[in-house]
Amino acid sequence: MHLLPLFPLNLVVFPGEKLNLHIFEPRYRQLVTDCLETGQTFGIPPFLNDQVQLIGTEMRLLKVERSYPGGESDIRTQAVGRFRIVDMLREAPGKLYAAGQVEDLPDDTPEDPALKLRISRQVEQLYGALSLQKLFIELPPDYRTFDVAHHLGLSTEQEFELLQLPTEPERQQYVLTHLEHILPVVLETERLKERVRQNGHFKHLTPPNF
Q: E strand or H helix at 32, and its extent?
């Protein structure tokens, strides 16, 4: 267990994800300065339903892209893992920003190849229906659920449910269930849009023989 500075946001960050942030509040300007000086990481726990959630993502500051005269900055960060808050402090000792005593959540479970194959097929169908095939094709063959989760139409609450799941097969099953639910809806919507587009156009139809 260790003390981790906290930067709650109303979003979910997945391990491996790169996140760009504009920093303007004095407490988080102080946090960026501390990260630059000490190399420390910080945590982003989602702020959902008017409260800070206990599962979050540990972030590493990669670069200050731009500093502004008033003290604001644009930074690049990357998520390095998940954690659980055991005890939260509204202010870290001697600091303006919050912190928490946290425990790391290991994530070394192997994927289920059969589930991954089914997910890949469902995602390919989904992206095809939405004309997003390029996004799917560019995914590496060793992708994990966290790599595609932001591109599957999950709500923020659903993304947080996914973040909490402890193993990759559990996350694969969650994603697959979601895809199997939304894919028929998307396909039917696309068929409806095509019918609407065809209304009023000259139709080249072959009459039936009877």
A: helix 26-38
What's the pLDDT score for residue 140? Answer: 77
In which domain, by residue range, is 182 found?
113-198
Q: What does the block give as tokens for 175?
A: 């994603």
- CA distances 181 to 15, 52, 171, Å, are 25, 29, 15
| Higher pLDDT among residues 128 and 139, named by residue | 128
Residue 204, domain member (yes or no)? no
Amino acid identity of residue 132, one-letter, is: L
pLDDT tens digit sequence for 167-204: 999 999 999 999 999 888 777 765 665 555 555 444 44
Q: Count of residues for the chain?
A: 210
Claim to verify: residue 37 and residue 119 sit in the same structural domain: no
Task: Specify the residue for token string 């993304």.
Answer: 159
Phi (first) and psi of residue 185, to 5 degrees: -65, -45
- φ and ψ of 18, to 5 deg: -100, 135
Q: Are 118 and 89 in contact (CB under 8 A)?
A: no
Q: What is the DSSP letter of 99?
A: E
Residue 203 in any domain: the answer is no
Stated pTM of the model = 0.83
Q: Could you identify the residue written with the tokens 């059969």?
A: 114
Pairing between strand 47-48 and 42-44?
unpaired
Last residue of a domain, one of 58, 84, 105: 105
